[in-house]
Write a structure and sequence with these properties.
The complex is a heterodimer of chains A (about 110) and B (about 110). With about 110 residues, chain A is mostly beta strands. Chain A contains no helices and eleven strands. In chain A, strands 2, 4, 5, 9, 10 and 11 form a six-stranded mixed sheet that branches. In chain A, strands 1-3-8-7-6 form a five-stranded antiparallel sheet, with no helix packed on it. With about 110 residues, chain B is mostly beta strands. In chain B, strands 2, 4, 5, 6, 9, 10 and 11 form a seven-stranded mixed sheet that branches. Chain B has a four-stranded antiparallel sheet with strand order 1-3-8-7, with no helix packed on it. Classes of the chains: A mainly beta (about 110), B mainly beta (about 110). The interface of A and B includes residues 40, 88, 93 and 96 of A.
Chain lengths: ~110, ~110
């Protein structure tokens, strides 16, 4: 099956810093989503981005489908950004999501 | 718009017992998927239900089974619980319309097997 690799596995930032999280996938995909999992386990949908670039406030994401990677940018980080960020891909429409192992982000005040 | 809701939030069971977890899909969504997330790992796909039928299954044994009801809500049943079944169980819903539809997750049920 498709492989999803995320980097870095852990990231520690000071409040106000910027960061880039990367997701590589091993085959072509129909869909790619970025999620934020808060300390209580809730998975929050950040972006649905099979290709191109999207922005939502301080967050933006870019997926280059032909090169099989996606990037999540966090600018001016806040302590509430802490948690685990997951990338997940869907090989065909309506099928399962395959998740990466996540990036654990800690933002210190 | 009502989001995905799961119950119970926490559950403690003994090895060998059976458990049923419940999920109400987001309003307007007709597809439900279940995922298992062990501590420190990404969620793993268990199975998906569409129009009350299983529509794809991950690498989980038959003691993991499910149902989808006419109102699109769903249950996950696990028989003969093992210690390794301890995990966060996540339900996600989406709207299969022929186009693409992002998944929306519930808050999960944290199952502990002792």
């Amino acid at each position: 099956g498709i492989q999803v690799e995320q980097s870095p596995p852990d990231l520690i930032l000071q409040e106000g810093a910027n960061s880039t999280l990367r997701c590589n996938f091993s085959d072509s995909v129909n869909n790619l989503q970025w999620f934020h999992q808060n300390p209580w386990g809730q998975l929050i949908n950040l972006f649905y981005i099979p290709s191109g670039t999207k922005q939502n406030g301080r967050l933006s994401a870019t997926t280059v489908a032909t090169e099989r990677y996606s990037l999540l940018y966090i600018s001016s980080s806040q302590t509430t950004d802490s948690g685990v960020y997951f990338c997940a891909v869907e090989e065909t429409s309506g099928s399962r999501l395959t998740f990466g192992e996540g990036t654990q982000l800690t933002v210190n005040p | 718009e009502t989001g995905v809701t799961q119950s119970p939030t926490h559950l403690i069971k003994t090895r060998g017992q059976q458990v049923t977890l419940r999920c109400s899909s987001q309003s307007g969504h007709n597809t439900v998927s279940w995922y298992q997330q062990a501590l420190g790992q990404g969620p793993q796909f268990i199975f998906q239900y569409y129009r009350e039928e299983e529509n794809g299954r991950g690498n989980f044994p038959p003691r993991f089974s499910g149902l989808q009801f006419p109102n699109y809500s769903s249950e996950l049943n696990v028989n003969a619980l093992e210690l390794d079944d301890s995990a966060l169980y996540l339900c996600a819903s989406s709207q299969r319309t022929g186009g693409d539809s992002p998944l929306h997750f519930g808050n999960g049920t944290r199952l502990t097997v002792t």
